[in-house]
Amino acid sequence: MSDASTEAASSVSPANGATTRTIPGMNCQGCVKRMREAIQSGDPEADVTGIPSEKRLEVVSTLTDAELDQRLTAAGYPPGEAALEEAAPDDVDNQPETAAPADAEAEKTAGAHSQSQGQGKKQRLAISGMTCASCVNSVQKALERTEGVDTASVNFGTHSAQVFGSAETQALIAAVESAGYGAEPIVDMREAERTRAEQDAKTYQNGCAAARSRWHWRFR
CB 131: neighbour CB atoms within 10 A? Predict the structure, then answer.
């Protein structure tokens, strides 16, 4: 990242001594949760607060700036300048309708390309923990980086991933889990959708409750 981008993406707030980062890929509290987990894996006592509507992350931690940026990037949320168009932080309920057609088309294209090229076996995974488009991007990148994967596509609408290649199922699951999400092989698509819906509803509710609690104590 250039010096100008770094200056725009990070600063220190004099009010509470927190280091701030501009995170273009932060769209919801699910994103904040992933970043918090990544940061607290290096500093368990770190205080991490995200404001998706402003693409702003505030961190009080013993990690150095370089370590902080490295962990954010590894989690799929590299610091950078904010995009011109910002997604609403809590508009998760409306995202499946807008994201699903594009995801479905991408999945169809990837499948057709893989089959025409004869690229290994096809595997489907049920993905849990995704709450926005940035989550989809993080899971897809994790799968694509896995050895033996030729193509991978992730569908937010069905919370599933389709992978072509020679990669072992456990390697794919491990890759998704390393990115902070859950995965399991799909045997029955309808059952997988029902299970994922239940799990993600719980994840979202827990995230909202945790966020309210943090803001309550922060501004008491």
Answer: 23
